[in-house]
């Protein structure tokens, strides 16, 4: 796979290197390019082009964009939908018929007790299915204080070919970035690290630098 942009002379070619670090030292250019990528990840048009074997691919389909490392970034709407879909697959691919029958019997008894106490008639759902169960359970990824562990959990859920990290070097140490690269290698996932300044060099990551004058180094 390759990522190209008309304002970046050097191609980001994942057939040559598994990991790239694009450092954009010009603040305005940094925002412009990362904002374009963010928009394209969300399905909008932009100037970044992802391709494989000369075929244009959807950036939104094949790439994940990680930029907010504060709060519970793991459990955004897209991620929760993926978690719920994974749970549904497990339920549908296993025999939970007896368990759901027992559950529905318990719920029916509870509702009978409740309706007997009401002074008016009500209707209620008397058959909980897999979708209802998932919604009721409110599954979330377990959030911890270790950012690297959270990122690894996120990567496993989103299941994309390329993960794009914005200024992650400012949040993880040299050793942690190396550990992340090892995990990405094991999962056969490519990564593009986009930074606003140079902090340190990682041996397994190919560096591309766009300086203040917009020259590619």
Question: How would you describe this structure to a colleague?
Answer:
With 217 residues, the chain is α/β, with parallel strands linked by helices. Helices cover 41% and strands 20% of the residues. It is built from 7 helices and 9 strands, in the order βββαββαβααααβαββ. The chain has helices at 27-41, 59-62, 77-92, 97-117, 130-137, 147-158, 174-187, and strands spanning 2-5, 8-13, 19-24, 49-52, 55-57, 63-66, 162-166, 190-195, 206-210. The strands form 2 sheets. It has a 5-stranded parallel sheet, with helices on both faces. Strands 2-1-4-5 form a 4-stranded antiparallel sheet. Strand 7, helix 7 and strand 8 (190-195) form a beta-alpha-beta unit. Helix 3 (77-92) packs across helix 5 (130-137). The model has no long low-confidence stretch (mean pLDDT 93).
Question: Layout of SSEs?
Answer:
Blueprint: E1 2-5, E2 8-13, E3 19-24, H1 27-41, E4 49-52, E5 55-57, H2 59-62, E6 63-66, H3 77-92, H4 97-117, H5 130-137, H6 147-158, E7 162-166, H7 174-187, E8 190-195, E9 206-210
Parallel strand pairs: 3-8, 3-9, 6-7, 7-8
Antiparallel strand pairs: 1-2, 1-4, 4-5
Give a quick rundown of the structure.
By secondary structure, the protein is α/β, with parallel strands linked by helices. It has helices at 27-41, 59-62, 77-92, 97-117, 130-137, 147-158, 174-187, and strands spanning 2-5, 8-13, 19-24, 49-52, 55-57, 63-66, 162-166, 190-195, 206-210.
